[in-house]
Recover the amino acids of this structure.
């Protein structure tokens, strides 16, 4: 809303939770802001009986990382973006994948967030720990969380 070509916008890359798809982006973003950002949402890599999800296998992680990179590239070709203000966020399994990709590619992001998604386990998520020291991360859960107890 109110897009201006002369302004470099921050980009939010949203990874939906299980049983959703990229079409959930408008509903999510209306709770953040309708102005002053560009947002994109790739589709989950695993087809579920209803919607899609983010499997945490080695192959699925590589595919998800490529999908996020493609989404960033596509948005940057279409909109004026600030290259140092790309944020990755997700919910549930999408939040876990957001953390995993941000931990693998911290140079791509200004920050990352998981909303009610467990931290990634397995496949060395902290192998670049020294490169991660300046990457802001938000870990959030609710009282009703199945991933984290109170």
């Amino acid at each position: 809303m109110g897009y201006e070509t002369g302004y470099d916008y921050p980009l939010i890359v949203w990874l939906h939770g299980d049983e959703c798809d990229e079409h959930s982006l408008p509903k999510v973003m209306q709770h953040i802001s309708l102005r002053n950002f560009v947002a994109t949402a790739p589709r989950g890599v695993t087809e579920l009986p209803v919607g899609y999800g983010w499997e945490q296998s080695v192959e699925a992680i590589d595919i998800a990382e490529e999908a996020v990179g493609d989404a960033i590239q596509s948005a940057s070709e279409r909109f004026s973006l600030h290259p140092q203000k790309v944020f990755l966020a997700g919910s549930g399994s999408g939040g876990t994948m957001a953390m995993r990709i941000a931990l693998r590619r911290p140079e791509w992001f200004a920050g990352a967030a998981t909303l009610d998604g467990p931290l990634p386990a397995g496949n060395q998520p902290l192998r670049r720990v020294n490169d991660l020291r300046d990457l802001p991360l938000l870990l959030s859960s609710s009282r009703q969380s199945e991933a984290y107890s109170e």
